[in-house]
Amino acid sequence: MMDLPTLIMETMFTLSGALLYPAIILLLVFVVWTLTALGQFISEYSGRTRNLEQLRDGCRETRALVQARSYGEAAETLATSGSNPLLRSFTGDLAKLLDDDRFSIESEKLLQDYEIRIAAELERLKILTRTAPMLGLMGTLIPLGPALMGLSAGNVETLASNLVIAFSTTVLGLFAGGIAYTIMLTKRRWYLQDLSDMEYVVRMVA
């Protein structure tokens, strides 16, 4: 019968070993997720422009049309004043509220909804930046136990195969985390500018 310390050590070794393949599978999923996010980032970057003059002119014209109670023309003008997809989406949604008596309240609610939408997008990237390297570290540390046991037994093949797994998961984890971190920082800067433009639109039109 095993004593308690030995039983605890054996249990920990078994449980940690059982986590290896789930960690590798999740890491591969995160790598695919990162590559998908990278493709979306490149697509967004290629279509992203900022034309403040167009936005300013559109807001001024919209305000004049609203004061003249030409809500249809005002909505059409405002909807086309944004210069990037996110801002166009916001101005399009805001244009539907121009003839609402509670415009100030509804526009503030819309602005908050877009802030939450942006935060959710950045949170997904933050999960990647934190979790992918953690999974890579798990994939590195777990095989080291069997690798050291193989080394002590003189089994070079076991040592080599476990070290390959360890180094591969490290590289993949750092790869996914590094790309996700770069995308997150860039998008955060983009979206801060977009939020500033959205607040500007609301104040100009109100």
From TrEMBL:
<dbReference type="Pfam" id="PF01618">
    <property type="entry name" value="MotA_ExbB"/>
</dbReference>
<keyword id="KW-0472">Membrane</keyword>
<dbReference type="InterPro" id="IPR050790">
    <property type="entry name" value="ExbB/TolQ_transport"/>
</dbReference>
<comment type="similarity">
    <text>Belongs to the exbB/tolQ family.</text>
</comment>
<dbReference type="GO" id="GO:0005886">
    <property type="term" value="C:plasma membrane"/>
</dbReference>
<keyword id="KW-0653">Protein transport</keyword>
<keyword id="KW-1133">Transmembrane helix</keyword>
<dbReference type="InterPro" id="IPR002898">
    <property type="entry name" value="MotA_ExbB_proton_chnl"/>
</dbReference>
<feature type="domain" description="MotA/TolQ/ExbB proton channel">
    <location>
        <begin position="99"/>
        <end position="187"/>
    </location>
</feature>
<keyword id="KW-0812">Transmembrane</keyword>
<keyword id="KW-1003">Cell membrane</keyword>
<dbReference type="GO" id="GO:0017038">
    <property type="term" value="P:protein import"/>
</dbReference>
<protein>
    <submittedName>
        <fullName>MotA/TolQ/ExbB proton channel family protein</fullName>
    </submittedName>
</protein>
<keyword id="KW-0813">Transport</keyword>
